[in-house]
Every structure is written in C-alpha cells, then in structure tokens.
Amino acid sequence: MYTKEFEIRWSDIDANRHLANTAYINFMSHTRMGFLMENGFGQKDLAKHNLGPVVFYEHVYYFREVFAGEPVKVSLQLKGLSEDGMYFEFVHNFYDSKGRNFASCEMMGGWIDLKARKLTGLPSELINNFDSLPHTEDFKVLTKEDTRKHGRKPKDVDPELLK
C-alpha cells in the first residue's frame, strides 16, 4: 500500500482543536503528488507531455476525531482507471499511530492537455506507471459515464442576484 506520513501541525488544527478539513485535503493532495512524482509524473514529465491533473470531486467520510501530537498516515489506492488513462479514481484512508482508520476519501479526476484546455488520455508509458498503484478490491475500468454518476450539473444564476 502506498502511504505518506504527516505530523499534525498547529496550522492543521481547527477551532474545535482537531484536524481541520483543509488539512485532510492537503494531506491527500501531497500523498497523490508523492506517488505521481515517484512514478514518472514529475513536473518535467508533465511539462514534456503538456499534462496537468484535475480533480472532479473529493468525498471525505469522517469516522473519528484526530488531534495534534501523533503522526498520521494517508494511504492511496487506485479504485478506477479508464482504458486511455483520461479518468482515474483514488481511495485515500487516514490512519492514526495505532492503525485505526479515522477518515476515508473517494476522489475522481482526469488529465487535461494544458494547451488545448481539454481532457486527454495518457501516453501508454504513463498509463502503465499509473496502473502500478495498488488497486482496491472493487477496482473497475472507468468510462465517461462514471464521471457523471452523481448527476451534478452547473446551475447558473442571474448576475443581479449576486450584487
């Protein structure tokens, strides 16, 4: 299992004196980027292929509080990947120093061509690197329809209502 360890800093604590929501997001992002950089997705590699990762959503489930003073570990597993590598889904689990799972997150994203500003698949050598991440038991091959499984669509508002 791919993991990163974090020390909970003063700036990671919220008004309730436990780990703040923003810290969860930052720890997950750092874990993902650590895996990517170690597997051929460093800044130079992404620039060479003109790629950037985009997040479609992150659904975090909180099971128990965690406080400053002990290290936490964040895991990363691949829950889904499209055949062309355009779409991916990760699962992150958060563990305290005793191995207790205190939070979990399902995250879906994709790859964007930074010049065209459109979603794009991965070159084959990068798909193989990406697919090397440990898979969840319910891993699946993703399709475009999977990116819309929650049925959310934007709803614009009259700009006058925002004044």
From TrEMBL:
Keywords (A to Z) from UniProt: Hydrolase
InterPro entries linked: 4-hydroxybenzoyl-CoA_TE, HotDog_dom_sf
Tree of life domain: Bacteria
Coiled-coil ranges per UniProt: none
Keyword Mitochondrion annotated: no
MF GO annotations: fatty acyl-CoA hydrolase activity
Similarity comment: Belongs to the 4-hydroxybenzoyl-CoA thioesterase family.
Official protein name in the record: Acyl-CoA thioester hydrolase
Taxonomic source organism: Zunongwangia mangrovi
